[in-house]
TrEMBL record:
Keywords, alphabetical: Membrane, Transmembrane, Transmembrane helix
Natural source organism: Echria macrotheca
Protein name listed in UniProt: DUF7702 domain-containing protein
Keyword Protein transport: no
Chain segments annotated as transmembrane: 41-58, 70-89, 101-124, 144-169, 181-204, 239-256, 276-296
Cited Pfam families: DUF3112 (PF11309), DUF7702 (PF24800)
Region of interest (Disordered), ranges: 1-24, 323-390
Compositional bias of kind Basic and acidic residues: 352-361, 380-390
Domain DUF7702: 41-202
Length: 390
């Protein structure tokens, strides 16, 4: 067999229906699924996503019982469920290759699920910006820019789903050309969106370092980079976790849009349409991301106090806010790396000296009964024997 021959199922021409919906006439990433090898591969990946869904839901439920609400665990649970559905649809499609309804559902779930991961990374990037530059990060204009990015994800999702479904119901060349243009725009935009957290975090970190250097020149002191700490663990670990996951998601998004920019006939697909490329650049990358977040306990690392609305709220506790020590215990160094970055303060903003004063008073109260009282806790009159009444 020639080394350039298409993978099984990748170049097969499925029988076309006489009427809509119509199966695609160009090669797609992954090609037409077949029982072998798609069924065993899809089954293994499906089981792994079941594990990720269970992991993130378990983390959410445990935290919820501690009054620690971390909604991102629910988002990753929802993403895992979307991937489970997509793989189940692919398994069904492999057994029913001419069923266009199953093909449509499989393509929609593949395109839609990954957007949740893009949103999660963008929100984490926003938290990093607010930590390094509170005044800038909490600025109303910056806040609306991020909100616009979040809303644009929903808009792009609607565009992708609409044109992807409609292409199955028309053979008009001009309409398909316009819908392909929409797909290319949406794919490119999502690839940029997946990449966006990387420059956002790097620029925020560089600007904070520049501010530190200017302060050192003016004051002649060796000050550290000023930032509002949030969550637990080292801040550099948060940065690396966000950068690596964003890079992986960018790789997957870039590969998918690159495949769309280089169409091939259904009977003559290229290597990038193969099944290994489909599974690796979609599901394997996403599995690495969801398990990395779960096993690294991102629910602790990226947690911020409930009700944070402005500068200082990340690192200063407030009445009614779940503090890290309330949720995770008194030790802020959960990683054992010696870097206590819990970034929390006592309720009401009281400092440590005030709490030390209160503890000393409570100790005195337990030993002496009242401030300035005698150690026995009894007055001289109380020490005298009392006469018993007959």
């Amino acid at each position: 067999m020639s080394s350039n021959s298409p993978a099984p199922g990748a170049g097969q021409m499925p029988p076309q229906n006489n009427g809509p919906p119509y199966l695609p006439t160009t090669a797609s990433l992954g090609g037409l699924p077949t029982p072998i090898p798609d069924d065993p591969i899809s089954a293994v990946l499906l089981a792994l996503f079941v594990g990720s869904a269970a992991l993130h839901m378990a983390i959410f439920q445990i935290n919820l019982r501690r009054s620690h609400k971390f909604i991102f665990s629910v988002l990753l649970f929802g993403f895992s469920m979307a991937r489970i559905t997509a793989l189940a649809m692919r398994l069904a499609w492999a057994s029913h290759p001419t069923n266009t309804s199953i093909a449509i559902a499989a393509n929609v779930f593949v395109a839609a699920g990954v957007l949740l991961l893009f949103l999660v990374n963008l929100m984490f990037a926003q938290r990093v910006v607010r930590a390094y530059h509170p005044a800038f990060g909490w600025n109303t204009a910056v806040r609306w820019v991020f909100r616009g990015l979040y809303a644009s994800v929903v808009g792009v999702l609607v565009m992708v789903v609409t044109v992807s479904v409609h292409m199955f119901f028309t053979l008009d060349v001009d309409v398909r050309a316009r819908e392909r243009s929409v797909q290319l725009f949406a794919g490119t935009y999502l690839a940029v969106l997946a990449f966006l957290p990387i420059p956002i975090v790097l620029v925020a970190r560089a600007a904070a370092s520049g501010r530190k250097a200017r302060h050192d020149d003016e004051e002649g002191t060796g000050t550290k980079v000023v930032r509002e700490k949030f969550g637990t663990g080292r801040f550099r670990t948060k940065i690396w976790l966000l950068l690596v996951t964003s890079a992986l998601l960018t790789l997957g998004a870039g590969f998918r849009v690159g495949v769309n920019f280089a169409p091939r006939p259904l009977a003559n697909p290229a290597w990038y349409h193969s099944k290994p490329a489909y599974y690796c650049f979609n599901y394997v990358i996403e599995l690495i991301v969801v398990y990395a977040y779960g096993l690294a306990r991102f629910d602790r690392r990226f947690h911020v106090p409930d009700g944070a609305k402005g500068p200082g709220d990340y690192s200063a506790g407030k009445i009614g806010v779940n503090r890290e020590e309330d949720v995770f215990g008194p030790d802020g160094d959960q990683d054992g790396d010696g870097d206590d970055t819990s970034g929390t303060a006592p309720v009401g903003g009281a400092d440590e000296s005030e709490h030390t004063w209160r503890r000393s008073d409570m100790t005195a109260l337990g030993d002496e009964g009242e401030y300035g009282g005698r150690k026995s806790g009894m007055t001289e009159l109380e020490k005298q024997p009392q006469k018993q009444e007959v």
